[in-house]
């Protein structure tokens, strides 16, 4: 495309005003057929190209090269002479493996299409390299409210100067993806941190690995340490892509995450003369191939991790969730492993008198040298419970005040066959909230008749949701808000948002005897490929330790019962 010197000066001024800084101001050499459209014309001012289906020829500088077969099989180009419309992007993806490298000034002929929400050129009939150029990244900051604010940058080279925090690493091993957010990690809107879903969505950005390969051999952000939620990076640079329903940054420079959230080797101190914990084991099954381990090898790896976590907690009484409901077999196998490593007779378990018919049930393990069961274990046959609670009183073995453990696992948020009041009410609490509220009322009644009740477990309800409010309304006191700072009050991460699903609530008299509480973040901040599974998890990452022993973090309390 031939231009006069005056015309070049005009477009250069416009480009600098838009934050794009082309290096070369000299008139480029002629290169075959000139462009017939600017990239901005192809992108348009909306979420779809106004030229979709038409063959166009555009000019730009290659800003990112992802042409390998294990990558996106194409490259991004950006116009060094952008238009003045802030609604239109000046970058575009070219689905082609014709030779082009970063810094090449190219003329590309291809069909404008919309592919999974991304405006691109495909198929491409010509890529002519006409010289070189450079595009400076546009400086952008989160939050970006709504799709329109992101659409304007689609296909463009961007740099986020602000500090961004890893808020989701669940798909790091499978898809090479991590999600970052501005202003720290994201919390569930119903967890009482003052966030909203719209604000969370504006603050976050998915960071991809420029590949659609599943379970890549080279997992990003694992050297020299594996990325954890809470780690942070500054100056993330890449092109803004769109695929699989969301915008994603494809880095052009390696992201460097600082270890802002180092692994906690041990729980914070909670004091007291009796330590009590709650822990969801994520389907500890001794029957292979059901809900937990698929093979004997996986089962051994899972057992090693669970034992490491329980030994690290060093609690005198532990309420467990998601233990296979097969009598004493699963809980007994776990206790046997603990005793093999900690010494014969160190741990024992309480037999559940009415575990229900679900595949999983709650369980209780304890140290006989530290506490003594008082009376028989109890439960409830109220049909409101999918997984009946386990109720057992204990007294310190050396004497002191008794307390009553009430171990729970409330109905999950998954919708399944939810209908009527159990259907999703659109209030952020998910399905079966009415059922969980009914379960909370029933537990409140049990606690009301118990000596020094301590209600623990996975309530499948975040801290500001109705079931927790129902329990506190019944006179129980949530312990983590008393001792844990707000930024650390989470035990589970779902869809990049942290929240407290696992709770410990004490009767008012017992609450005065609680000396401390903590949530041991050994699971929720860790990527899933560190767990016990052997499918797709690189063997080099497995360790028989507590990290990613489950998907829930354990909660630990100290009690002064003397």
Structure in words:
18% of the residues lie in helices and 31% in strands. The chain has helices at residues 5-17, 39-43, 146-151, 172-175, 197-203, 296-313, 329-342, 433-448, 466-473, 480-483, 508-511; strands spanning 55-66, 74-78, 91-94, 104-115, 118-132, 138-140, 157-168, 178-182, 186-187, 204-207, 232-243, 246-251, 274-284, 317-324, 348-350, 360-366, 371-378, 390-396, 403-409, 453-458, 477-478, 492-494, 497-499, 502-506, 514-519, 555-559. The protein is α+β, with helices and mostly antiparallel strands. The strands form five sheets. The chain has a six-stranded mixed beta sheet with strand order 15-16-14-13-26-25. Strands 17-18-19-20-24-21 form a six-stranded mixed beta sheet.
Question: What is the compact description of this entry?
Answer:
By secondary structure, this protein is of the alpha+beta class. It is 18% helix and 31% strand. The chain has a six-stranded mixed beta sheet. Strands 17-18-19-20-24-21 form a six-stranded mixed beta sheet. A five-stranded mixed beta barrel has the order 1-2-3-5-4.
């Amino acid at each position: 495309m031939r231009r006069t010197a005056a015309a070049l000066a005009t477009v250069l001024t416009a480009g600098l005003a838009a934050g794009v800084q082309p290096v070369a101001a000299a008139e480029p050499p002629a290169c075959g057929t000139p462009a017939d459209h600017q990239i901005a014309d192809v992108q348009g001012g909306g979420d779809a190209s106004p030229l979709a289906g038409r063959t166009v020829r555009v000019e730009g500088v290659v800003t990112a090269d992802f042409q390998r077969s294990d990558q996106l099989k194409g490259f991004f180009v950006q116009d060094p002479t952008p238009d003045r419309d802030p609604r239109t992007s000046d970058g575009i993806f070219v689905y082609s493996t014709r030779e082009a490298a970063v810094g090449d000034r190219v003329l590309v002929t291809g069909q404008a299409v919309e592919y999974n929400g991304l405006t691109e050129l495909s198929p491409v009939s010509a890529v002519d390299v006409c010289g070189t150029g450079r595009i400076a990244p546009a400086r952008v900051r989160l939050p970006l409210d709504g799709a329109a604010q992101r659409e304007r940058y689609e296909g463009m080279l961007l740099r986020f100067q602000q500090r961004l925090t890893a808020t989701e690493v669940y798909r790091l091993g499978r898809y090479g993806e991590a999600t970052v957010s501005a202003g720290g990690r994201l919390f569930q809107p119903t967890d009482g941190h003052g966030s909203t879903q719209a604000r969370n969505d504006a603050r976050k950005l998915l960071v991809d690995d420029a590949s659609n390969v599943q379970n890549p051999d080279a997992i990003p952000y694992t050297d020299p340490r594996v990325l954890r939620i809470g780690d942070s990076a500054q100056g993330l640079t890449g092109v803004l892509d769109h695929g699989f329903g969301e915008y994603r940054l494809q880095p052009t420079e390696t992201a460097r995450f600082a270890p802002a959230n180092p692994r906690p080797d041990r729980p914070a101190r909670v004091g007291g003369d009796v330590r009590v914990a709650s822990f969801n084991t994520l389907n500890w099954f001794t029957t292979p191939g059901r809900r937990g381990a698929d093979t004997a090898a996986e089962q051994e790896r899972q057992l090693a991790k669970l034992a490491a976590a329980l030994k690290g907690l060093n609690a005198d009484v532990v309420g467990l969730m998601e233990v296979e409901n097969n009598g004493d077999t699963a809980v007994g196998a776990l206790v046997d492993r603990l005793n093999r490593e900690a010494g014969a007779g160190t741990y024992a378990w309480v037999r559940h008198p009415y575990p229900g018919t679900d595949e999983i049930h709650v369980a209780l393990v304890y140290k006989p040298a530290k506490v003594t069961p008082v009376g028989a274990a109890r439960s409830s046959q109220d049909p409101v419970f999918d997984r009946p609670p386990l109720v057992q009183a204990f007294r310190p073995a050396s004497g002191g005040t008794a307390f009553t453990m009430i171990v729970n696992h409330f109905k999950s948020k998954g919708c399944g066959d939810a209908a009527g009041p159990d259907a999703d009410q659109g209030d952020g609490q998910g399905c079966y909230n009415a059922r969980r509220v009914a379960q909370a009322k029933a537990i409140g009644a049990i606690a009301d008749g118990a000596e020094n009740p301590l209600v623990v477990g996975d309530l499948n309800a975040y801290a500001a949701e109705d079931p927790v409010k129902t329990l506190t309304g019944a006179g129980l006191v949530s312990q983590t808000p008393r001792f844990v700072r707000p930024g650390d009050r989470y035990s589970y991460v779902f869809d990049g948002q942290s929240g407290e699903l696992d709770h410990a609530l004490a009767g008012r008299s017992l609450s005065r005897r609680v000396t401390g509480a903590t949530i041991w973040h050994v699971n929720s901040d860790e990527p899933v490929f560190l767990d016990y599974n052997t499918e797709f998890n690189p063997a080099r990452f497995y360790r028989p330790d507590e990290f990613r022993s489950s998907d829930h973090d354990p909660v630990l309390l100290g009690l002064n019962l003397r």
